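User: I want to check something. If I give you two sequences, will you return the structure for each one separately, not as a complex?

Assistant: Yes, each is folded on its own. Here is the first sequence with its structure:
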Amino acid sequence: MTEQSKIPVPGRPAKGKSLFERADGAFGFEDLMAAPVPDRLAEPVARRAPHAPKRTAEERTPSVTPVAHEVAEAPPGPARQGAVSREKVAFNGEPQPIDRARLRANGLIDPDGDVTTLLEEFRIVKRQILLAAREAVEAGRGAAAQRVLVCSPLPGEGKTFCAVNLALAIAFEKDVEVVLADADFANPSVLSLLGLSAGTGLMDAFADPEVRIEDCVIPTDVPGLFVLPAGNRTSSDSEYLAAERTSEILDRLTRGAPRRLVIFDSPPALAASPAAELAHHVGQALLICRADQTGQSSVEDALSLLSACPDIKLLLNSAHFSPSGRRFGAYYGYGG
């Protein structure tokens, strides 16, 4: 072995030094040494300014008297350019009477009739719809919060029956207006169920910029209930609904009227495309499923098509069995 004690250390004797000290002297490891650590580190910079000493009342008094700045008020005149008028859009058409006999013949709610099981059930449904609409309005979700789509997966499941009854039930409210819009352009039936005469309607306002949608709305003799016909059928129903001006047209139905709801009776989701397009313009969708008829796969497919709507509710129609045995209306003395 090499004798470690004989490694020469320039400038100082090797005797008494450790192996590392002698290697350091021989090969010059000074440049590889860590930087020296000071005995005292610098004081950290304060993140918060120290509290200033309390001043006397005289010191707190400003030496310069503040000058009041006058704010010039804008002169009265027309609204500034680009501002949107929030004046309430009114429906000034001639009121038409609802055919009560036709309502009763089709098993619908009679506005002048007694409390029935059907009315009580739709009172529960409307309360959920109104509550969700109010919360959406308060959350600032725009005019769509006041629009409800009533739809079904397939034909024959009762979506128009439910849409009309829901609108009639909401019209009973003391401070709410409701517009029942027939959006089933291929097979409109709202006017015939209510006994109203046809006129220009929803699709006419979409297709013709000269047609104002508020002029198409029919006031009825039921307080708070208005009806919007489907209008003339076109071959571009879905394309008109997907157009940019659709939102502007629909906004006019509730402009300046925060307590007004619009209910759309749309085509079945799996039978026609307008339902999926309307889902982009509403805050809620009520999907009607018929007991012992609507299949699970149909419901799932319809939910997928309506997924643009942020709030989708399911309503089971034509159910004759209740596990709780409830019989709405019987409490008032009416079992029908």
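And separately, the second sequence with its own structure:
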Amino acid sequence: MSVLVVVSETEFRRAESTFTTAPGFDCRVAPGAEDAICDAVEQHGARAVIVGSSPYRERLYALLSPGGLIARFGVGYDNIDRPRATAAGVLCTNTPDVLQQSVAELTMTMMGAAARHVLPVAVALQDGRWSPRQGVELEGKTLALIGCGAIAQAVARIASGGFGMRVVGYARTARPAPEHFAETTTDFGAAVRGADFVSLHIPASPENAAFLNQERLSQLEPHAWLVNTARGAVVDERALFDALSSGRLAGAALDVFEREPYVPADAEHDLRTLPNVLPVPHIGSNTVEANRRMALRALRNVQLAHEGNLTALDLINPDVLSRG
């Protein structure tokens, strides 16, 4: 008998061929909002859901508990209430180790676009203006990676091996420099000192809320570009706007925002109005290849939960296993 699973619509469309052809699964599609997902769970009697980045805060946990599964289609899980899930006995998983290449490639693409002013000259040409601008090469430039996890290591491999950049890593706790890093440090100021590009690769955990605040932004070099393909919540967007609009920071290439679809902090701090911002709508992991891998990994978690093989799950709330 097929395992029935409710899949949020956006994620289903991103990997439709995988979800529709996966043997042993009956995937039912529902809008991603919590109430719609809950309605589908009730309608179909589902014990598992695969969801994206919409917030899930209340009703879903009561419907699925105990032993139900929320399988996150992606790595970040700040939209999942892990304590509530654990208290309700709901298993929560994500899809690690499947999207770092896609996100790393976008990170490098945005750095290259910034270095060569691709956005403004392309817009000018579309408007009928021939406005070439002098750019810079990436080779020999310093890249500071804030966070040294799997995605950051993929960026370091491409930046160092492919472009000849010098890569410095920042981590909260001391660690040996991974391959392709020139050095790592626990001193944020030291990591970004002299950096031409600063790229964020930290999760949206409570301790990282507005991590890149006014104080830390002031430590970046005036000629530096900020790249964020991690989570919008790790940046104080008002402080970033002020740094960019005043010229204290050269520019920012942003794939993620505190509120998505993007809503400015207020009318006076709309990042879209700044000429030195390169914004894209959270496309870091949205490639054919990464979407297929995320779908397969999420379905694997559904299957493992169905079989009761809980220790093999990609659990993000492992304490649930010890819940009495």
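Because they were folded independently, the notes below concern the second chain alone. The mean pLDDT is 97. The chain has two domains: 3-98+288-322, 100-279.
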